[in-house]
């Protein structure tokens, strides 16, 4: 291996009740792409935050280029050459690219020079980006480029990337990988956090695997199978979703000519969306974030009403009915944003159970809530979906993202819906839990429910869907059976090439 | 270094304890304030908090006043707290209180001098309706045009005060009052008099209504799905919409309830303790009730206790003015301090304080 850039020795960080990192040691070489792998709660974020100066370790030390490295704040880490691209972008929609980049710099140069620098960097690294464009109009992939360029302008020696491909199309992933390899060629080291094993095997030189705060192994991913990596992450083997027979029933949900104006300045209008889902079938809807996923879910859940006869549930027109009436007739939904949309952060799990299950589970009679029954229901969800929580009285925001997701999905599934629409079912959920959620969705379909899964995780969609369509700028592509698709075609569908001819790819 | 760390779940202990801390801090700083004004701090605090209930000479007069003052405060604060829970900030209860009194009194005076037993119930209904209608103005403007209910409801207080000034020397003026402003005195008209239910206690119908409101609000917020929807709207508006709660309905419901209860309070006040519509019969109960609602943690039982406490500072304040010669404004300052300290200590409910350096640097 090349000479060492950053050496981590015995880093330990404890929070009340949990040891996030326990005696973690490894080295990152110069010009090395180093993967950091682990389930949710394995301690990846805490470790990275210590390197980036957001959190200080309780014990242990780091050396950068042979000299001690203990950043007390991110600005010190940046001065030492560490840059980070976060999973959730911190960009202002209403400002343009150059202004956003300037906001992240300590001493921004004049705007004109900055715009020139942005153009130079974007050309050098093959990341096309116009410094004058308003960020609100950019796709998720382009937004990520803004963040990357912001980092590159600092001439980093170590670039940390937190789950960078979760918002990208396969084509955009290709572009990103080219950029990263180019950086590597220039001697920049990259710490790459992901749980997509194939990606890591294709891109990374070395991988360090964390489990429950401890380092499990450092290995060479190209010489390790994805299954071995996954098992090191989880600590045991887990069941992949089992196949099921495809006896298709009657049309449960039919959407026809569904068009809705954009809900706000940065929302996406829905344009003539149409599809059918049959009993026992899983329809996967892919697409890059921000192409109408939230808007489609809102139109199906009843949060937004649509023109008459655009949404038909088992033949009955429900387009003018609100969420309560749709739930009563068997159409349930689970939105992507867990805190604040699918669940109220400050309310207990018991109360969050009442939020959607009040009527279907008989938690309310004569307008009065039976808290006893509500508690039973919450406990049932916690038990059936292995939600890790001290109890049902805990506020939703106290749960980790993955555990809350299990609760939210479980809450809907246990209500035995006829049709379930779910957006990003396993976003931020660890591998074992994600497998459990997918299995539960398949079981539900096996019992005769129709399921619409909206997701940005293509592997997931390929795994569980019978048919696949992609959203692009509020339009839905033609729906194709998954068995007939390859990754190239899917990429074109996501890019908006509806008839699947070779299209102009905007990159 | 002192840092604040967000608690995973709001602390129940601190929710209960912060009002007590706020009262103690107010006593401490308030005592110092009275000290600067030249009064003995201990005597001032005793005069405000103790004497109204236990002074051998004054208690007989001031004890019933406790309920007389607490009644309207609690009634209004209960209504406000329901809206506040939903994130709907009705700041104009004072206006709804005045309009309830004016409309209720007008309905009664139209029937003068009937001695039917229906007169008083009719006035109660008209009072509630008057307050409700006044609150519907910000509600409709908010739901139709997206105006801010804080500004609109507050501005309407001044409109209501102008209407009050106009009718007390015009439409509702006592024709036998020799030209003085002010309506007929309801105390002299049995059919419309909000008399004490138990003589000598200060317990009039408004106090009874306040107690009923406390129980009803408790049931609504703790057990009823509508109360759940109200809380949900305040906690997470998007989640509420997802659950199927209509924001418009919640706005109309919350402003309607708080308006109607404020109107009732106005009607009970004008037919009872105040006795007649005058330019200044209202004693700012509508504004003080905002403090009561927060001091009571927006919880019905809390509001009941907070209303009694606030009434005590009113009576004790008057007593302190009388006996120690402290200015009236210092009493208002004292009440303001109470809210200030409450909001300041409130931070401990959701955050815990960590003292010391942030780990190893």
From TrEMBL, chain A:
The keyword Cell membrane applies. One of its GO terms (molecular function) is ATP hydrolysis activity. InterPro entries: AAA+_ATPase, ABC_carbohydrate_import_ATPase, ABC_transporter-like_ATP-bd, ABC_transporter-like_CS, P-loop_NTPase. Residues 6-237, 253-498 form the ABC transporter domain. GO terms for cellular component: plasma membrane. Coiled coil: none annotated. Pfam families: ABC_tran (PF00005). Keywords: ATP-binding, Cell membrane, Membrane, Nucleotide-binding, Repeat, Sugar transport, Translocase, Transport. SMART domains: AAA. It is a peripheral membrane protein. The keyword Oxidoreductase does not apply. It is found in: Cell membrane. PROSITE patterns: ABC_TRANSPORTER_1, ABC_TRANSPORTER_2. This is ABC transporter ATP-binding protein. It comes from Thetidibacter halocola.
Automatic annotation (TrEMBL), chain B:
InterPro entries: ABC_transp_permease. One of its GO terms (cellular component) is plasma membrane. It is a multi-pass membrane protein. The keyword Lipoprotein does not apply. The chain crosses the membrane at residues 12-37, 66-84, 96-112, 118-141, 150-172, 203-221, 250-268, 288-315, 322-344. It is found in: Cell membrane. One of its GO terms (molecular function) is transmembrane transporter activity. It comes from the Bacteria. This is ABC transporter permease.
């Amino acid at each position: 291996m090349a000479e060492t850039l950053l050496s981590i020795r015995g880093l330990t960080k404890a929070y009340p009740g949990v040891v996030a990192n326990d005696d973690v040691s490894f080295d990152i070489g110069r010009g090395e792409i180093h993967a950091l792998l682990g389930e949710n709660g394995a301690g990846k974020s805490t470790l990275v935050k210590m390197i980036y100066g957001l959190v200080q370790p309780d014990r242990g030390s780091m050396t950068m280029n042979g000299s001690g490295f203990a950043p007390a704040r991110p600005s010190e880490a940046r001065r030492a050459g560490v840059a980070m691209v976060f999973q959730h972008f911190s960009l202002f929609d209403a400002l343009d690219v150059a202004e956003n980049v300037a906001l992240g710099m300590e001493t921004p140069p004049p705007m004109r020079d900055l715009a020139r620098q942005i153009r130079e960097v974007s050309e050098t690294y093959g990341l096309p980006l116009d410094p004058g464009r308003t960020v609100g109009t950019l796709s998720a992939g382009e937004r990520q480029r803004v963040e990357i360029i912001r980092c590159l302008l600092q001439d980093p020696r170590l670039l940390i990337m937190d789950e960078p491909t979760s918002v990208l199309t396969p084509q955009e992933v290709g572009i990103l990988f080219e950029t990263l390899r180019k950086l590597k060629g220039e001697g920049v080291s990259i710490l790459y956090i992901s749980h997509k094993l194939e990606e890591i095997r294709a891109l990374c030189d070395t991988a360090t695997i964390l489990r429950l705060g401890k380092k499990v192994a450092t290995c060479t991913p190209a010489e390790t199978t994805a299954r071995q990596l996954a098992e090191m992450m989880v600590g045991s083997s887990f069941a992949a979703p089992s196949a099921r027979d495809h006896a298709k029933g009657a049309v449960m949900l039919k959407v026809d000519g569904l068009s809705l104006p954009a809900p706000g300045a940065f929302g996406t209008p829905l344009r003539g969306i149409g599809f059918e889902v049959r009993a026992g079938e899983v329809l996967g809807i892919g697409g890059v974030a921000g192409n109408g996923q939230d808007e489609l879910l809102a139109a199906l859940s009843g949060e937004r009403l649509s023109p008459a006869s655009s949404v038909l549930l088992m033949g009955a027109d429900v387009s003018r009915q609100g969420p309560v009436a749709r739930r009563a007739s068997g159409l349930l939904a689970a939105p992507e944003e867990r805190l604040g949309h699918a669940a109220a952060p400050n309310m207990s799990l018991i109360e969050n159970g009442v939020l959607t299950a009040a009527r279907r589970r008989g938690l309310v009679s004569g307008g009065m809530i039976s808290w006893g029954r509500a508690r039973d229901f919450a406990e049932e969800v916690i038990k059936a979906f292995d939600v890790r929580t001290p109890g049902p009285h805990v506020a939703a925001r106290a749960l980790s993202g993955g555990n809350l997701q299990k609760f939210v999905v479980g809450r809907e599934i246990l209500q035995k819906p006829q049709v379930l629409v779910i957006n990003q079912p396993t976003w931020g959920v660890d591998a074992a839990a994600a497998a459990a959620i997918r299995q539960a969705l398949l079981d539900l379909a096996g019992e005769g429910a129709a399921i619409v899964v909206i997701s940005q995780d293509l592997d997931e969609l390929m795994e569980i869907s019978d048919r696949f369509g992609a959203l692009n700028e509020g339009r839905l592509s033609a729906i194709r059976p998954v068995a007939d698709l390859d990754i190239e075609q899917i990429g074109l569908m996501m890019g908006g090439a509806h008839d699947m001819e070779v299209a102009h790819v905007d990159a | 270094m002192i840092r604040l760390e967000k608690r995973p779940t709001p602390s129940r202990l601190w929710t209960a304890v912060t009002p007590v801390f706020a009262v103690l801090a107010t006593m401490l700083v308030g005592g110092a304030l009275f000290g600067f004004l030249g009064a003995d701090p201990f005597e001032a605090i005793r005069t405000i908090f103790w004497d109204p209930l236990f002074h051998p000479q004054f208690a007989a007069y001031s004890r019933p006043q406790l309920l007389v003052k607490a009644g309207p405060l609690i009634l209004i604060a209960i209504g406000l707290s329901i809206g506040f829970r939903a994130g709907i900030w009705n700041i104009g209860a004072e206006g709804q209180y005045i309009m309830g009194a004016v409309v209720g009194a007008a309905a009664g005076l139209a029937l003068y001098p009937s001695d039917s037993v229906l007169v008083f119930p009719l006035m109660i209904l008209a009072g509630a309706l008057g307050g409700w209608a006044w609150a519907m103005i910000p509600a409709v403007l908010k739901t139709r045009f997206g105006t801010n209910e804080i500004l609109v409801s507050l501005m309407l207080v001044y409109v209501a005060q102008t209407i009050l000034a106009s009718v007390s020397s015009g439409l509702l003026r006592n024709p036998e009052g020799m030209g003085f402003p002010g309506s007929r005195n309801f105390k002299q008209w049995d059919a419309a008099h909000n008399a004490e239910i138990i003589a000598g206690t200060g317990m009039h119908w408004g106090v009874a209504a306040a107690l009923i409101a406390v129980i009803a609000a408790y049931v609504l917020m703790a057990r009823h799905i509508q109360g759940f929807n109200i809380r949900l709207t305040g906690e997470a508006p998007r989640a509420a919409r997802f659950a199927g709660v209509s924001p418009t309905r919640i706005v109309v419901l919350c402003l309607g309830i708080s308006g109607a209860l404020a109107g009732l309070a106005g009607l009970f006040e004008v037919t009872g303790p105040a006795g007649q519509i005058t330019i200044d019969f209202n004693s700012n109960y509508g504004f003080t009730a905002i403090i009561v609602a927060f001091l009571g943690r927006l919880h019905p039982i809390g509001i009941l206790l907070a209303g009694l406490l606030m009434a005590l500072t009113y009576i004790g304040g008057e007593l302190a003015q009388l006996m120690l010669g402290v200015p009236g404004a210092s009493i208002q300052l004292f009440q303001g301090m109470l809210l200030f300290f409450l909001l300041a200590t409130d931070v401990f409910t959701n955050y815990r304080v960590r003292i010391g350096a942030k780990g190893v640097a």
